[in-house]
Amino acid sequence: MTRIPLEATLKTRPPARPFTRPFAVALTATVLLLAAACGSSEQGSTVPAGDSGRAAPAPAAPAAPGEAPRQDPGEADTAPTGVPEARDSDPGRLSTFALDVDTASYGYAKQTLTEGRLPDPAQVRPEEFVNSFRQDYAEPDGDGFAVHLDGARLPGGGAALVRVGLRTRGADPETRRPANLTFVVDVSGSMGEPGRLDLVKEALHKLVDQLGPGDQVAIVAFSDEAETVVPMTPATSRQELHAAVDRLAVRDSTNLEAGLVTGYGEAARTFRPMATNRVVLLSDGLANTGDTTWQGILDRVKESAGRRITLLCVGVGREYGDALMEQLADNGDGAAVYVGSAADAHKVFVERLVTTLDLRARDAKAQVAFNPSVVESYRLIGYENRALAAEDFRDDTKDGGEVGPGHSVTALYRVTLRGGASGQLATATVRWQDPDTRGPAETSRALDARDLAGSVWEGPSPRFQVTVVAAAFAEHLRGREEAFGAGLRELGRHADRLAEATEDPMVAELAGLIRRASELG
């Protein structure tokens, strides 16, 4: 992977500016020069972006002649159901968002469909459906990201789907950094429902058995108040830790604020600079005592959290406080997952332990620049809660997403193409900070219109097609019929075909969920 001096990049590739036609031509030429230097038109570039040479955020530019005015991401309309309205965006501005590795929305939808209920449309987040599935992206050579960009035309040829894929390098479990884990466990009355506290305890037992000699664990329990059940203890003291988990029992109301304040306090007290320091909240998210707002709760723990302590929210339960858990994760330097079964717990705490616990990038953000001479309009599928202003991309004080080793992050765009247009279609750039030094870096990749596959269902890789099926299914559950020109029955047929092609049991499960939704609808 070629590393380019920042000074040269700032002269030739200013990704924080909206496209104008002269700029689009200049940028295309620059990308071609960089590609030639790398030996391939598909080779990405990584740019160290230290504070001493960081580009200033670009000011909001006036619209170019013939283009609509720039719209702030926060101005999007919202449908009465709480689902943001599907509206194409003017390509004269950039699409900027914080990366998101949450999968709780898909996990909870899977649980509700299995129980014979359709999920609440407002709790369906397409990006979390898409990011629940394995992708085919190559890993980067270093500790940053590899950027993948591809696409395919929709029926009729006037529109296309563009996939932006980001991937971090995987980690060997033997070489991962030690972990300081503070479990904050909900033992309120609502956790007495079968499948809640018993599932949490099973997950904790699994995790304790997976930890190594350098790891440490603390356990905090909360109901109307919080108590430290076990202070930070070496993971090798497994008998003591298992006994503490077994003692967890249901009590009274849900003071989630007290639990997190106590948990973050313990994590800060025992903070280790060279370890992964993480608070793991296990709860149904149904807070009813103390401050029940994510803003108020995070404000109470911000001093402790500022010491590079990340948060993992693990949701459980038939009735689940999705909004609170998601906002805690998104705004607390963390991620949210949903565990609905013992198999789910095994995936999170055994199969994906290193990805769950370790960290590759902090405050990671993506910015996609569309060429208005090729793209008439675009729509990012999902990520409404993660939208950023264009000038926030290089403002390292603005919160991004935390990404672990071996993680894939995918964004899918529906773009309307200009008739007969050719040339560079889009450039995707990702910016992140090193987990330890906080030093920022960037890498980019471009996509040409001629590289679009002729059909979504025939040319692209099976994993691209799985992405389309997952996103379209989410759009259907949000009340948008015929997403990407395919109804539920057609999506189910594609999912069955792709399950056979990929030999992936999760894709087969997706096919079953689509059939179930079709029956319930």
TrEMBL record:
This is von Willebrand factor type A domain-containing protein. Residues 180-357 form the VWFA domain. Pfam families: VWA, vWF_A, YfbK_C. The lineage of its organism: Bacteria, Bacillati, Actinomycetota, Actinomycetes, Streptosporangiales. Residues 48-68 have a biased composition (Low complexity). Residues 41-94 are annotated as: Disordered. Signal peptide: none annotated. PROSITE patterns: VWFA. It comes from Planomonospora corallina.
